[in-house]
Amino acid sequence: MPAAFPDFRLGAVLATSFTGTLSERHGDRVERIPAPRRLVDWLLVSGLPVDSCTPAQLELAKELRESIHAAATAAAIRDPLPAAAVHVINERSAQGRAAAVLTPGGERRWRLACVEDALGVIAADAVAVIAGERDGKLALCASPTCRAAFFDTSRSRTRRWCDMNTCGNREKKARFHANQRKRPATSS
How many angstroms separate the CA atoms of 67 and 86, rounded? Predict the structure, then answer.
């Protein structure tokens, strides 16, 4: 992968991990799937391998990503789900023709013919998460520049950051430095 592309931020939940392909939504936005090939790369590392992607399919993917983000954000703050976002999620879910298959080793894999099939799997996962069918809760990242929707499966359901290695560390470092500046200088 070219060095010009930012690393993927992969989570354990497919739908919210997909929304993380655009991060820092309230700061300097970081687009992690700026080109069709990059979407193919993300789908591969997410267990949804496809051979190729067109610019039009990339636009469908970004529309789905933003719809999931809007619906998950609304669900996290207990607002009504945006009708347009629900429509896009439902359409992508219905259009996908993915088949779950069992490997000889007992693992589930997806049989996909195209990007739309992969988007159907992501949309179906979003439906399950937003509808509350999975064990966990939707939350928003506490970072003021991020505010990503994530699915909290921690035991206490009190996780604050979408990703501890990025948003959590950045916020904790900022708090530490702010506290250091507040302390009076010690004289020797």
Answer: 7
